[in-house]
Amino acid sequence: MYITGDNVSKEKLLKIADKCKLPVWPDAENPFLHQGNLEEMPESVCVVSDELTESRLETLFQLPITVLIDAQASFKSIADFIGQQKNHTFADGLGFLLTGPVIYHYDVALIFSKALQKRQGFSDFRFESIHLALHESLVNGLIHGNLRLSGKLRQNAAEYTSYSALVRERLNTPAYARKAISIAAQWNRTKMKITVRDEGMGYSLGEILKQTPSIRATSGRGLRIIAGAADSCTIDNYGKEISLSFLREKSQNPDVPLPIDPIRATNTVPHEDLSQAKVLIIEDDKSNQALLGGLLSQLGIKQIEIAEDGVQGLNKVLTVEPDLIILDIGMPKLNGYEVLKRLKSTPYTYAIPVLIQTASDTREARDKTFKSGASDFITKPINPLEFFARVRIHLENKMLVNRLQKRLKQIHQELSTAQSMQMGLLPHAERLQAVHRQYGLDIASYFEPSDKLGGDFWQVIELDKQRVGFYLCDFSGHGLASALNTFRLHTLIFQMHDKIKQPSDFLSILNHHLYALLQRGQFATFFFGIYHAAEETLTYSGAAAPRPFHWDGKKWRVLTTRGLPLGISQSAVYENKTVPFKPGNRLFIYSDALTESINEQHEQMSVKELMNFVKEASTQMPIREGLTGVMNRFFTFAPPPVNDDITAVLIESQRKDMK
Description:
- With about 650 residues, the protein is of the alpha/beta class.
- The strands form six sheets. Strands 5-6-7-9-8 form a five-stranded antiparallel sheet, sandwiched between helices.
């Protein structure tokens, strides 16, 4: 603890040190500010100075522990301040006490903010916010608090001259000038709190109720600027104490890792319009009902309901559906704790914020209140400014949640619509029946996106009377971006399907287009096959697609699919392969989710294991029952939900005359 003064005697400062039981450093015979090694100083001393200069002020703010400035303040102010700050250290606190002349003579807010920045290493962005909030808090404390001057006096040049004269007069009047204003900062690893206290008269309840609860200053400055510069702001003791909270940034000091984004942490949002908010007051005292109702009206709240006991309150909760409940503890029939217990045990009312008001301010009462599920706590007699702040923040949070839920519902509806559109990319039953009649291919499929939208899709393309093509595409990733790519590719294929001759040529054309369309890091694996009904052959080509399984009537084989994924390189080359595909032959194509999913033992299914599933489940079964068996075995191995889109298609060649 350090004490200095501006043009005061050493004897007075020494008397202060003695009264506050602080040792004098370096000694009583030479009690002046020492410029030596500050780390060797004891933690609680009195530094005496007979002259206060700006450079000395800056030096004092760099001293460890807490700094106490301006011994012209009263003994009581100094003693109270020391009592509040004496337990803080260089690592977690900084503070000072001053009077009006010092505030006007020096830019105390700037010097104090620089001292905090040196200790904590926060960004210039955060520095400007702290400096602004401190400056406005000091102006509020000095002008509107201690000197009791109204901003209305300086609305034009003539009045400003009178205003300046009145400022000088009051700064030279002990009754005003020697009232103390203190600034104290304490911090931990996550948050910093700065408190500005003045000894002025404060606001009366009548003055508060005459104006809007936002305390708009007629000069355009004031408490709204202070609240906007800080992450949170509370005003206590009828305006005589302003507490500013700032989330700590990631410190430039490696010993204090605090990963807080300064831009996000200081983002401010304009106040919500509360006219549509509904508040239920559960309170048995008529005078308190009137007081709370009047204060809520000052916030612009029009829908206010009152219940006179706990039972009536619970019934009104169901009919009113309030956005906030203000609940008294001591009530007939059901007390506040019992009402709170029932509210929090019912899913319908669980999320409604509850502000408890009670005359008990003990730690036990607060602990019991919050353990019972209350959202906040305020003591009687109610401080209007504190009440305004607490009610507003809970209503604004509730309105934000309501908007978020509405937006999430809208997003859900939009995603459901997009999912229906994406499902429309898949071949419908009538199309598959037409393919069966024309080409003798029976096709069964399974498709399930990991999100509402996926990056997989497959389709069949009728090329001519003897040839039909089918493909399976799997875009990298899943979700909205991949789904948009499926729409792009589907449109592209639809525009060029009548030009398809060979699978490899078709893949080369698709690769050329996707290389120009896709963003870096996006790509697609692709399998494309053409079945020739007259020749009973299957010609296919692949772009890094999972290797399909072919049943030739005797055994299952794994087919080769080489080639880079589509969209990776313009110089990618693809090749054709042809295998017999006679009646009774089958082809199983699939997305890589079947071979990349992990089971509960963190094991990954191999291609060989998957082919055994296909062999055992589908060889002797009709293809639909066979594909169902394959998927049942897969989900037994890797229970849902899986982390990727799943597509599986089983194709069987049949004679055209088969039904």
